[in-house]
């Protein structure tokens, strides 16, 4: 399996990445309802965990731009940005995609375009993918071998989270340097978003 560059940007055992195409950083933060938190503290992943906490009750994200995309990196994998109302709001006039993984949980991908949920994919319930048009996500996952035909087709290094990241990189042109992702980035609390 080809290695995902995004996999080098997040912890291997739990993560959340949400990407919004096009708007400015300020616009995305405004849509999230966190503009009043400025000036935003600059935190590395470790500093953000110390400042904002380790549990789902204190959700926060570190934010940066790479190419056409604004990246929102969960401080601790909380999954709050997967909520349809949140992702729909982020996607108004553009598109947004979010991937979430917890080692003891599952891998989920949600894609929204212009306020509408296009696909909501859960690796635990592949047959229950929902949304207005799931073809882009399903095709991207199929292209990286996410859906082996039988048990023998699974590589030893097959990982639903790594394959999901690789699929999104290819389908949406997502690129983020691990050096940038591990550096000090503006960090905001999402405490106001109910889980």
Question: How does this structure look, described?
Answer:
The protein has 195 residues and is of the alpha+beta class. It is 25% helix and 26% strand. It has six helices and eight strands, in the order βαβαββαβββαααβ. The chain has helices spanning 25-32, 45-52, 84-90, 135-143, 160-172, 178-181; strands at 14-21, 42-43, 60-66, 69-74, 95-102, 107-113, 116-122, 185-189. It has an eight-stranded antiparallel sheet, with helices on both faces. The termini are far apart. The model has no long low-confidence stretch (mean pLDDT 89).
Main attributes of the structure:
6 helices, alpha+beta
Quick summary of this structure?
By secondary structure, the protein is an alpha+beta fold. It has helices at 25-32, 45-52, 84-90, 135-143, 160-172, 178-181, and strands spanning 14-21, 42-43, 60-66, 69-74, 95-102, 107-113, 116-122, 185-189.
H and E string? EHEHEEHEEEHHHE
* Biggest sheet layout: 8 strands, antiparallel
Mean pLDDT: 89
Rg estimate, integer Å? 16 Å
Structural class: alpha+beta
Overall shape: it is globular
Distance between the termini: 34 Å
Low-confidence stretches: none
Helix content: 25-40%
Number of strands: 8
**How many helices in DSSP terms?**
6
Strand content: 25-35%
Strand order of the largest sheet: 2-8-3-4-1-5-6-7
């Amino acid at each position: 399996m080809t290695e995902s560059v995004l996999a080098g940007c997040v912890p291997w055992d739990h993560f959340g990445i949400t990407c919004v195409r096009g708007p400015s950083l300020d616009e995305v933060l405004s849509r999230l309802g966190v503009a009043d938190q400025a000036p935003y503290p600059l935190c590395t992943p470790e500093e953000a965990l110390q400042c904002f906490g380790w549990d789902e009750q204190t959700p926060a994200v570190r934010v940066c731009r790479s190419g056409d995309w604004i990246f929102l990196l969960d401080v601790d994998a909380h999954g709050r940005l997967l909520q349809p109302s949140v992702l729909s709001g982020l996607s108004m006039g553009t598109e947004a995609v979010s991937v979430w993984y917890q080692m003891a949980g599952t891998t989920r991908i949600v894609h929204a375009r212009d306020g509408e949920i296009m696909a909501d994919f859960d690796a635990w319930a592949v047959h229950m993918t929902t949304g207005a048009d799931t073809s882009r996500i399903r095709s991207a996952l199929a292209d990286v071998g996410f859906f082996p035909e039988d048990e023998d087709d699974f590589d030893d290094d097959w990982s639903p989270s790594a394959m999901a990241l690789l699929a999104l990189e290819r389908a949406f042109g997502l690129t983020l340097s691990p050096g940038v992702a591990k550096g000090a980035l503006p960090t905001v609390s999402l405490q106001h978003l109910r889980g």
